[in-house]
Every structure is written in C-alpha cells, then in structure tokens.
Amino acid sequence: MQYRAAQPEDEAFVRMLFVEQAAGLLTAAGLGEEQSMALAEMQYRGRQVSWAARYPRAENLIVCDGAGHPVGRLLLHRLPQQWRIVDLVIRPDLRQQGLGEQVLADCQRQATEARVALALQVVPYNPARRLYERMHFCAVHEDAVEVEMIWNAAGEHAALAAVENGKG
C-alpha cells in the first residue's frame, strides 16, 4: 500500500467512500435506501466538522494501490502515547480483498516502531469489527452506539480492557 496526503481534489472521492459505507450500514439497520443516502450525506457533513474540531492535526491520507490508484482513505491522529484511527474506509468494490487488513498492519507496524497503542471506534454491527478483532484489537468499552477498541504490540491491550471494564 502507498499513502499520500489528501488534496482538495480528493474531496469527492472521500465523500463517496463515507456516504456509500454509511448508507450501507443504515440500510442494513432497516432504513430505506433513499432515507439511508440522505442521512449518510448529513452524517458526512457533520463528521467532517466534528473530526476537524476533535482531531485538528490528524493526517488525512489517501490509500493507494501499487500503481498509485486511490483505493481508500485513512484519517490518523498521532499523539505521543496513542494513535487513533479516526476513519478507515476502502472502496466498496475492493472490500473483502485484504486491503483494509494491509492498512491496519501498516499502522500496527508503525505504532510498534513508535511504541504507541492504536485506538479506534466502530459501531457494534459494522462488519469491520470482525477484521479489527482478527487484527487483535480488544474492546475496552462497548455500548449500543459504539465500541472503543485498543491494540498494543506489547499485549497490554488485554490488561487494559480488564482494568477499564472493572475486572482488573
């Protein structure tokens, strides 16, 4: 995988990635297709504003294949003790081909070198949750709306999950 900084001309691509993913999840949750698309458009605008405010220094990266063609987007916020994968989305026609796994593996390798943990959030019914679990992210908090997951190369994520869930 290759990564490059997102440019203004990538806005339509990034929007398409988010809206198609969000609309698919909303449709799977029981909304009609038209309602799902309209709600996904609103969510996109809200998320852009929210993420810019919460993660002002996040790296907005376009994920490219070996030929340099855009295949996804990674929004990564790096702090000294922990990095947060704010958004990771792969083109719908390229999902289930291991691209997301490659991006996560790259993030894990870099986090290991930097000696930091990786964190992310996912909605409980998002199929990507299974990928995160396969990649050894551990749920440290879960409710009906979101699951907070942590990965740590040293294996401390399991101990952290026990402590944060009141079992440690």
Structural summary, described in words:
It is a single chain. By secondary structure, the protein is α+β, with helices and mostly antiparallel strands. It contains 5 helices and 7 strands, in the order E-H-H-E-E-E-H-E-H-E-E-H. It has a 7-stranded mixed β-sheet, with helices on both faces.
Quick structural overview:
With 168 residues, the protein is an alpha+beta fold. The chain contains five helices and seven strands.
Instruction: Spell out the helices and strands N to C.
Output: EHHEEEHEHEEH
Gyration radius (Cα, Å) is: 16 Å
Termini separation comes to 38 Å
Oligomer: single chain
Strand order of the largest sheet: 1-2-3-4-5-7-6
Low-confidence regions: 156-164
Largest sheet: 7 strands, mixed
Average pLDDT rating: 86
Helix content: 40-55%
Number of strands: 7
Q: Which class of secondary structure composition applies to the elements? A: alpha+beta
Strand content: 25-35%
Q: Tally the helices.
A: 5
What overall form do the CA principal axes indicate? Answer: globular
Layout of secondary structure:
Layout lengths: L1 E4 L5 H18 L4 H22 L4 E6 L5 E9 L3 E9 L8 H16 L2 E6 L5 H7 L3 E5 L4 E5 L4 H9 L4
Parallel strand pairs: 4-5
Antiparallel strand pairs: 1-2, 2-3, 3-4, 5-7, 6-7
Helix pairs in contact: 1-2
